[in-house]
Amino acid sequence: MSSHSDLPKILSPLRVVFMGTPDFAVAPLNALVESRHDIMAVYSQPPRPKGRGHKVQFSPVHQRAYDLSIPVNTPAKLKNDMDQVSELAAFAPDVCVVVAYGLILPKEILNIPRYGCLNIHASLLPRWRGAAPIQRAIWEGDERTGICIMQMEEGLDTGPVISCEEIDITPQTTTPLLHDALSDMGARMIVEVLDRLAEDKKLDAKPQSESGKTYAHMLKKEHGKVDWNLSADQIDRQIRALNPWPGVWTTTGDGKRLKILKSEVVECGDTSGVSAGTLCGKGFEVFCGDKNAVRLVTVQPENAKPMDVKAAINGGYLEPGMVLGR
Questions:
Q1: Same domain for 254 and 305?
Q2: What is the pTM of this model?
Q3: Average pLDDT along the chain
Q4: At 242, which CATH number?
Q5: Which of 54, 74, 259, 315 could cross-link to 49 by cystine, CB 3.0-4.6 Å?
Q6: DSSP state of 97
């Protein structure tokens, strides 16, 4: 006969308010919906015009919550808005889970949940606090990144870390691939953290070190312009990090914009007297500042569809000896 101690513990579900906006936050929302915990409401950025038709659209999280019939709130701001404070408090949340929400949570909001607000952050804190940690980790050549579940406080990603897992960044890692892997990792980790919280009724968190902190500042369109005087590795990382947004581009010999969607690093042969940015050989490789080259794989000429580089050469968009980026 089994003793009571052998029986599995039945955990009381936590009352959760979920706050998130982009695609990255959808997998964690799905995981929490499928968990034992109760999603009381979802908060997301307000619907905004998108696309060529400027049609107003829900954010990915808003759309998913709508499909799941979960109440959605879309305040334009939370700071100095006591009506929003009262509305959130009325859900009586045990915890708020925050994933790329996009609004600063003031102290009045952070203090509402019984166990505070937990953030799923896509870096190995304190490295890459801020808005674009996935892209920055690839662009700067980090060998590893990961997910940290963090107890939020008023500072920008400064709170103590509850759980952390790592993932490798390889020479083939792109932002879309890493984005999806980290989203799934965060989804699994947040359910594990909430299950522990439901059982232990407390959170164990380790303060972040101030040593090694870096900031992943918001990306801008100008970050996508290629400087061919940089090394081939640096340029390849830029291409893998900044697609699909803001996108990486250079200019062709006639001054038209050429988007670079995929590349790889190769060694060059004899390039004495060749300037950085020159299309070498049959026109597939671009000579870079470290005497190596970036081989173009997929490009998008101005006013054209994406194509492989051979098609771009056959179509007259590129030709051997052309100097890019002038």
A1: yes
A2: 0.93
A3: 94
A4: 3.10.25.10
A5: 54
A6: E
Question: Mind giving me the DSSP string for 256-308?
Answer: -EEEEEEEEEEE-S--TTPPTTBEETTTTEEE-TTSEEEEEEEEEETTS--EE
Show the domain range for 309: 221-314
* Tally of structural domains, the chain: 2
Residue 2, pLDDT score: 40
pLDDT at 225 over 70: yes
**Domain stops at, among 165, 193, 216:** 216
Of 26, 100, 110, 102, nearest to 70 by C-alpha is 26
How far CA 314 is from CA of 281, 308, 311, in Å, comes to: 15, 10, 5
**Residue 9 pLDDT:** 56
Strand partners, 57: 48
Q: Which two tokens stand for residue 209?
A: 């070190």
**Whole-angstrom Cα distance, residue 19 to residue 5?**
37
Rounded to an integer, the average pLDDT of 97-117 is 97
Q: What is the Cα 111 distance to its own chain's centre?
A: 27
